[in-house]
Write a structure and sequence with these properties.
The protein has about 725 residues and is of the alpha+beta class. The protein has a 5-stranded antiparallel sheet with strand order 7-10-5-1-14. It has 24 helices and 16 strands.
Length: about 725
């Protein structure tokens, strides 16, 4: 028993910190799907907790940190000289970084209950969330979390009754045995439903999302129209720059199954400046509605085309979809090409500004409406019969305007690409086919100042994402005197596989494409982005899957959400890691994966700092409200704490005179002796002398001088720990 007590007395904080750190990291690994080996993670967490406690006790934190850095540097040199892939080391480095950060926080948490409270609250919240969502979790992880909670409650109760932390830890075997017994009991096959908690959590989540979206809209400074700025596009509207997509759902669609990928227009731009796209004046065009005029043109073309009813039915397809705003607030009314009717709530009347349709007031999370539109099989021979061979014309000259300083080689390239084409449609198809051979990437440098974006893309970089391809398509079309414009919105092909199923579209589904005006139909979408162009350029029979439930093969463009299918290798490149750029990208991916853990730890640190500041404020307030005698008692208690830190503790049963003789000289201040202080305290405590403000000031100066002397003599770690007390 004596040996057990000595063991607990020496290692109880290390054991408590290791349990707290391991439980937190196991939950984080499961919550964010980090796929770290549980056994290795547990060993690392325990090891770093014990090493940290040992380094602090020996006042060797900085040498230990330097030794760790040197060790990692040696490992990297080993990988370099043995020609091994350094990226194999990155997952272990990420796990080690998380273990070190968590062990540092848990070291302070086991010494201060108010720091352990937010961490345990977060772990319990994770357990409740797992129960609500039905996410599987190891029962040993659950036992570990509850073990730490029971220790926390026992320590909090023991502190009120004056029981030391070391004595409380003697209950650890009892807590652990009871939890192990509970984990061995049989459980029901059906999980707890948690209906009320689930409904409450959903309601809170929806309200919080709506509030965040509203605040983002309020401080964004935008005009209210939709922009790809929400998903990585430059907020200033300039073209170029790397794309950082967000998977957060922004809208959802549900309705009829479509025969071709669904394109939802948000904002249409008609003016190209050389570095960006801009909208024309936002004023309704004589009260006309472009989408209704286009539907009328299509009906007239079908009526006068001479096609049979069967051919018209194979060429067109009426669809209805419901659109719901989930993660954005905008005035833009998303709609498909050839839309002919909206079903809006509250009898809203949208305004049409060219191809952009805007609501009178921006709508946020929860706004729902229906869109009815006509699908057209643009790749069928019957569609080509509808088109005239005459050059396209449009009343809005901004749709054919080009910058005066556009390089001549862009015109020459457009002429070369379309050589031998007889109609505007054939020219546009030739341009789309040419651009689809360019490389898709989300990492793009902004063009040099003064350079035209389309010129740089077409002749220099030849790589980019949807905005680059859509811009090039529109500019090359205008070089051939074809009216074109640039469109931003959403695109997905999942509507081709499902019907009446809600599909969530986020940043990976945000997209840009071009539209061209062709007589007598009107505006026709053209998408040259690789992976997208192959879907839009295929006929309905080719695109329709034989089995909607079967996933697309990796080598075919089966999904337009995210990166194009033929460029999916960019997510896990084979040759990239051996280059410096590949190593850098891999390191960034690892950092992004660890970002939630760092954010959680940072939030816990901020909360802990706020608690420390609040506690300090309350202490000052309580001290200020004391009378002189209570202040002297408080200062004497502080003196005894300083003596304990200086290895001169006040033992149980020891008298003031005995302690004075023991600590005399060691606890003397530069300007006063400890014997003088004790003499004054005895006169006040036992001699009936009244405490005065001058006596309080004298003792305060003595304690401050003693604190300064202690801080100057201890290590940096000791200073930090003392300031946290």
């Amino acid at each position: 028993m004596k040996r057990y007590r000595e063991l607990i007395g020496r290692y109880h904080e290390s054991l408590h910190g290791a349990c707290l750190c391991t439980g937190f990291l196991l939950l984080a690994d499961s919550f964010w799907d980090l796929n770290w080996p549980s056994l290795l993670l547990t060993v690392c967490a325990v090891l770093f907790c014990f090493l940290l406690h040992y380094a602090v006790q020996k006042e060797a934190v900085i040498p230990a940190g330097l030794l760790l850095v040197i060790l990692h540097f040696g490992v990297l040199l080993f990988f370099h000289f043995t020609h091994r892939d350094p990226q194999l080391f990155l997952p272990f480095l990420a796990m080690e970084t998380a273990c070190i950060a968590a062990s540092v926080y848990c070291y302070f948490a086991v010494r201060r209950l108010y720091l352990a409270l937010p961490l345990l609250a977060a772990e319990l919240a994770c357990l409740i969330y797992y129960g609500v969502e039905g996410i599987p979790l190891s029962k040993w992880t659950i036992c570990l979390v509850f073990f730490c909670c029971m220790l926390f409650l026992a320590e909090a109760a023991g502190r009120k009754k004056g029981v030391g932390k070391q004595d409380v830890f003697f209950l650890a075997p009892l807590f652990l045995a009871s939890l192990l017994l509970l984990s061995l009991l049989p459980v029901k096959d059906t999980p707890i439903r948690w209906e009320r908690i689930r409904n409450a959590a959903d309601a809170v989540q929806e309200k919080a999302a709506a509030l965040i979206v509203s605040l983002d809209y309020l401080f964004s400074g935008t005009s209210g129209t939709y922009s790809l700025a929400h998903t990585g596009y430059s907020s200033k509207g300039n073209l170029g720059g790397s794309l950082v997509q967000s998977n957060k759902a922004q809208i959802s669609v549900a309705g009829d199954r479509t025969k071709s990928p669904l394109y939802l227009k948000g904002t249409v731009y008609d003016t190209y400046t050389g570095t960006s796209w801009e909208q024309g004046p936002l004023s309704p065009k004589n009260g006309t509605r472009e989408y209704r005029e286009q539907y009328r043109q299509i009906n007239e073309a079908l009526t006068t085309s001479g096609l049979t009813d069967e051919e018209i039915r194979s060429l067109t397809h009426l669809c209805t979809v419901e659109i719901k705003f989930e993660g954005l607030k905008t005035k833009s009314l998303f709609h498909a090409p050839n839309t002919w009717r909206f079903h809006l709530p509250d009898a809203l009347e949208p305004d049409t500004f060219g191809g952009t349709i805007l609501l009178p007031k921006a709508k946020g999370v929860g706004f729902t409406y229906e869109v009815q539109f006509l699908e057209i099989n643009y790749e069928s021979d019957d569609f080509r019969k509808l088109l005239t061979e005459a050059p396209a014309s449009h009343s809005d000259r901004s749709c054919t305007a080009l910058p005066e300083d556009l390089p001549l080689r862009v015109y020459d390239l457009a002429k070369e690409i379309t050589r031998g084409c007889g109609t505007p449609y054939e020219e546009l198809e030739a341009i789309r086919t040419y651009l689809s051979s360019y490389q898709y990437t989300t990492t793009v440098d902004s063009p040099e100042e003064g350079r035209d974006f389309a010129d740089v893309f077409l002749f220099d970089t030849k790589t980019g994402y949807c905005t680059s391809f859509a811009t090039a398509m529109a500019i090359l079309g205008r070089c051939r005197s074809i009216p074109t414009r640039y469109v931003e919105g959403f695109a997905t092909d999942r509507t081709c596989d499902t019907e009446n199923t809600q599909i969530h579209l986020g940043g990976s589904s945000a997209h840009a494409w071009a539209e061209a005006y062709l007589e007598p139909i009107g505006w026709v979408p053209f998408d040259p982005t690789p992976g997208y162009s192959s879907d839009t350029a295929s006929g309905w029979e080719e695109h329709a899957p034989e089995d909607a439930s079967s996933p697309s093969s990796p080598g075919t463009p089966g999904s337009m959400d995210g990166s194009p299918a033929q460029n999916r290798e960019e997510d896990t490149p084979a040759d990239e890691p051996r280059t410096a750029a590949g190593l850098y990208k891999g390191f960034l991916r690892t950092l992004l994966k660890l970002l939630p853990i760092f954010i959680l730890l940072a939030a816990a640190c901020v909360l802990g700092t706020a608690v420390l500041l609040f506690r300090k404020f309350m202490r000052h307030r309580a001290y200020a409200s004391m009378d002189d005698y209570q202040k002297i008692l408080f200062l004497m208690d502080k003196l005894f704490r300083l003596g304990k830190l200086s290895n001169l503790p006040f033992q149980e049963g020891e008298t003031l005179l005995e302690y004075e003789e023991k600590a005399a000289g060691a606890l003397d201040a530069p300007d006063a002796a400890l014997t003088d202080l004790f003499r004054i305290f005895r006169q006040i405590r036992y001699g009936g002398q009244k405490a005065s403000p001058e006596t309080v000031l004298y003792m305060e100066a003595y304690i401050r001088s003693l604190e300064k002397q202690y801080i100057n003599n201890c290590s940096r770690t000791g200073r930090m720990l003392y300031r946290l007390r």
